[in-house]
């Protein structure tokens, strides 16, 4: 199986298939398609679909940031202080996720959608205010569980087609799992 970047698959002295990059072809393509930035000919994913998924994830992170901010300012009651501090920490982390997603969208030649119009529709998770501290914790846990499932499905979809996007999604997924775990601890205590 001769790939475009592989010159030869002849057997080397140690019995392993010999592998050389076709560096001349790589250099020529790099020069020719320079306006494509980080996206090269060997990008194997469906770029339009990846960009749409990343923009949906971006909307989700923005909605989650707003919901955690609202809950941080509205958390009241005896046990509110540590919970409010956790909400603030999560808000900052969701904001950082949004930034990393936006950065990847631009790297892939897309445009990050920060428009407030339709933000809730693009988001996987919902913006629910909740009346009590308990409600807020529960709504955040539900939103995290939605994020976990959607990131996991995105990771599966991307597979080995776009390793950089996959790694980003996996890192965010791990953070959302930690968030969900923090929230279930609070749910048990409050
Ligand atoms: Fe997040
Ligand atoms: Fe989260």
TrEMBL record:
<dbReference type="InterPro" id="IPR009040">
    <property type="entry name" value="Ferritin-like_diiron"/>
</dbReference>
<feature type="binding site">
    <location>
        <position position="97"/>
    </location>
    <ligand>
        <name>Fe cation</name>
    </ligand>
</feature>
<dbReference type="GO" id="GO:0008199">
    <property type="term" value="F:ferric iron binding"/>
</dbReference>
<feature type="binding site">
    <location>
        <position position="179"/>
    </location>
    <ligand>
        <name>Fe cation</name>
    </ligand>
</feature>
<dbReference type="InterPro" id="IPR008331">
    <property type="entry name" value="Ferritin_DPS_dom"/>
</dbReference>
<dbReference type="GO" id="GO:0005829">
    <property type="term" value="C:cytosol"/>
</dbReference>
<protein>
    <submittedName>
        <fullName>Bacterioferritin</fullName>
    </submittedName>
</protein>
<dbReference type="InterPro" id="IPR012347">
    <property type="entry name" value="Ferritin-like"/>
</dbReference>
<dbReference type="GO" id="GO:0020037">
    <property type="term" value="F:heme binding"/>
</dbReference>
<dbReference type="InterPro" id="IPR014490">
    <property type="entry name" value="Dps-like"/>
</dbReference>
<dbReference type="InterPro" id="IPR009078">
    <property type="entry name" value="Ferritin-like_SF"/>
</dbReference>
<feature type="domain" description="Ferritin-like diiron">
    <location>
        <begin position="44"/>
        <end position="190"/>
    </location>
</feature>
<keyword id="KW-0479">Metal-binding</keyword>
<feature type="binding site">
    <location>
        <position position="176"/>
    </location>
    <ligand>
        <name>Fe cation</name>
    </ligand>
</feature>
<feature type="binding site">
    <location>
        <position position="61"/>
    </location>
    <ligand>
        <name>Fe cation</name>
    </ligand>
</feature>
<dbReference type="GO" id="GO:0006879">
    <property type="term" value="P:intracellular iron ion homeostasis"/>
</dbReference>
<keyword id="KW-0408">Iron</keyword>
<dbReference type="GO" id="GO:0004322">
    <property type="term" value="F:ferroxidase activity"/>
</dbReference>
<dbReference type="Pfam" id="PF00210">
    <property type="entry name" value="Ferritin"/>
</dbReference>
<keyword id="KW-0409">Iron storage</keyword>
<feature type="binding site">
    <location>
        <position position="144"/>
    </location>
    <ligand>
        <name>Fe cation</name>
    </ligand>
</feature>
């Amino acid at each position: 199986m001769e790939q475009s970047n592989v010159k030869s698959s002849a057997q080397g002295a140690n019995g392993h298939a010999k592998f050389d990059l076709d560096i001349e072809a790589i250099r020529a393509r790099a020069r020719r398609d320079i306006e494509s930035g980080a996206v090269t000919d060997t990008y194997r994913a469906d770029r339009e679909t990846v960009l749409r998924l990343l923009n949906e994830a971006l909307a989700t992170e923005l909605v989650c940031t707003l919901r955690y901010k609202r809950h941080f300012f509205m958390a009241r009651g005896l046990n509110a202080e540590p919970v409010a501090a956790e909400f603030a920490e999560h808000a900052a982390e969701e904001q950082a996720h949004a930034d990393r997603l936006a950065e990847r969208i631009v790297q892939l030649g897309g445009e990050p959608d920060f428009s407030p119009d339709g933000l809730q529709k693009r988001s996987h998770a919902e913006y629910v205010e909740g009346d009590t501290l308990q409600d807020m914790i529960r709504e955040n846990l539900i939103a995290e569980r939605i994020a976990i499932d959607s990131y996991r499905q995105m990771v599966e979809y991307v597979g080995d087609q776009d390793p950089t996007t996959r790694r980003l999604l996996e890192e965010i997924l791990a953070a959302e799992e930690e968030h969900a775990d923090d929230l279930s601890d609070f749910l048990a205590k409050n």
